[in-house]
Amino acid sequence: SSIPKIVILGAGYGGILTAQRLQKALNYNEADVTLVNRHEYHYFTTHLHMPAAGTDSIEHTRVSISKLIDEFKIDLVKSSVQEIRTQQKKVILEDGTLSYDYLVIALGGEPETFGIPGLDKYALTIRSINSVRLIREHIEYQFAKYKNENNAQEHINFVVGGAGFSGIEFVAELADRIPALCKEYDVDPSMVNIYNVEAAPTALPGFAPELVEHAMTVLTKKGVTFKIGVAIKECLPNGVILATGEEIKASTIVWTGGIRGNRLIEAAGFEAMRGRVKVDEYLRVPGHENIFIIGDGSLMINPEGRPYPPTAQIAMQQGECCAFNLVAAIRSQQPKKFAFSNKGTVASLGKGQGIAVVGDKKYRGWTAAQLKKVVDMRYLFIIGGIPLVLKKGRFF
Ligand code: FAD
To answer: Could you tell me which residue ranges the FAD/NAD(P)-binding domain spans (predicted)?
Structure first.
């Protein structure tokens, strides 16, 4: 047929926003839109640290994609993408192929281990619903093991690699969960150790120094031991070796220290830096006017000449811009340039605690913790309206 085919790969922040804006903007029979995702649900990556630590449920962290998309307008395909073949304009799925005229790659990121030996094999990562289920169960199992294996300390030592956004949010939740675990498994809380190891000279790069200091004070009080400016040299089945030569015994190692684009992007032959493609100002891959990359797989440079950090916030805005440019392409109209509008940054530090920057204002404590909820609710509202806010929102 002559109806253009649009295929969107990935139903995360970028993919969902693209699909929703397309279904609103496109006229009947103007394009065939297909959304491909590995699971039947969309998950809130920015919330994964909670079910990982066990402080919130999986059901607050995901929603069925069919609740977000009008299936009379968009075909949902639950499958795993295996390969992108740009020459044939085809996408190979685990159970079939799709052809496209326009392609949106919104497959998110993957952990980057920088070649540190053992991390791939022994560290857990916070990347999906399935991966955080494993972390949660693993932690509980270690408490049980501790009581059954002569109180071997490594079972209740926890190492988190990386003190960026995800690392900090996760150690905060973990520290909040420890008292309940100790009670349940009859463990003396003073025996538990949580180490947060970061190679960079500071935790939470990008936040103002006074907020970083506040965050570290709050978390130290909760029982977290920081090792900042110290690299992990090697990861072992039961611990890590630091660049200083120090060895920390721990049966649980969670790696949050790096993020890269999806490996399918490099495999497709696009020029990429750690799996991220420097897209043009319309979000297209250079040399491929019909292929857009948004979210963690895209690389854009901010006005100060530095790459924007990969965030849900930018992925959503790119999704909206991408949908606009797809409609423009189909109608032979002018595309628009992507312009990031920074709505602020909030990091949770566990129950009732947080830090936030909105414009040039800085917040901490309870106010910041409330702002985090506002951000989460705003997102639920954008993708699912009031019903989704009521169903998945966490008001307390
Ligand atoms: P994603 O949202 O990751 O979506 C990718 C989708 O593609 C997923 O649904 C995945 O299942 C699917 N997929 C992947 N591979 C395949 C395949 N081969 N086949 C089919 N489907 C596939 N950002 C913020 O702005 N604010 C925060 O507070 C914040 N907190 C964070 C906390 C944590 C713990 C983490 C891990 C991240 C946080 N981020 C935060 C970053 C943010 O989550 C990401 O930048 C954002 O999810 C990127 O969106 P995306 O659309 O590129 O990809």
So the answer is: 5-319
